[in-house]
Amino acid sequence: MGAIQGRFVPTVAVSLSLFMWTRAEVATESPLPLPIYVYDYAGVGPDVRAAAAEVTRYIYAEIGVDIVWVDRCPLACHIAFTREAQADTTDGDLMLTILPDAMTSREFPAGVLGAAREEGSVAYAFFGRIRFFAFERNLLPATLLGHVIAHEVGHVLLREGHAPHGLMSARWVDPELLQAKVGRLGFTETQGSRIRSRLGSGAGPTGSGDARAR
Q1: What distance in Å separates the CA atoms of residue 162 and residue 8, rounded to the nearest whole number?
Q2: Parallel, antiparallel, or unpaired: how do β-strands 114-116 and 32-40 relate?
């Protein structure tokens, strides 16, 4: 698998303000399961990948969604294995592909940390860039990776472009990065309601619509 190509909406190095839908507000409803099939080409360390998964789970748990993280190649993906593994997934399954610098398309400016194709079912995280940006901003790579994943998966689920503020904004700057660091960066109540509605409709996470990314 080479550098990714296609029509994307970029998600640049990011910004946020948010109205958090707390666990108390969704406690009366059963969490909706959302499997994510993960293909790690970047060879992210198991501890970092596990910690990033917990960050993503927490963000989605806040809106009543239970992320089920399925590692399709736990150590690092290889082209032959991944083609075979992806052939086993069902059309419409939500997939996360974590890419190293060598597999990140140069069509994306240096500040772009992830992507999701319009009308697609695949979210991308550019781990080389994420690791560099996290080092520059004194963030744990797992913290930033988990938030980038939540953002890109959000594009697939919401089927729309960026919001002016919050987790789904195109740029995160210092105040937003601080929110991420302390676990206060998440979806708005409206976004959370729309995601739950899509997952609860029976149409699946990647039904028809106009999704955008990054």
Answers
A1: 12
A2: unpaired
Could you give the C-alpha distances from 63 to 60, 76, 128, 141, in angstroms and in order? 5, 31, 29, 24
Q: Residue 214: which pLDDT band, with cuts at 50, 70 and 90?
A: low
| 207 has a pLDDT exceeding 50 | yes
DSSP E strand boundaries for the chain:
32-40, 65-71, 95-99, 114-116, 122-126
Its pTM stands at: 0.81
> CA-CA distances (angstroms) from residue 70 to 35, 172, 191?
7, 28, 24
Q: What are φ and ψ of residue 74, in 5° steps?
A: -60, -30
Query: Whole-angstrom Cα distance, residue 47 to residue 134?
Result: 16
Amino acid at 117: R
Q: Which residue in the block uniquely carries the two structure tokens 């797992």?
A: 142
d(CA 127, CA 141): 9
Distance of CA 154 to the CA centre of its chain: 6
What residues does 114 pair with on adjacent strands? Answer: 11, 125
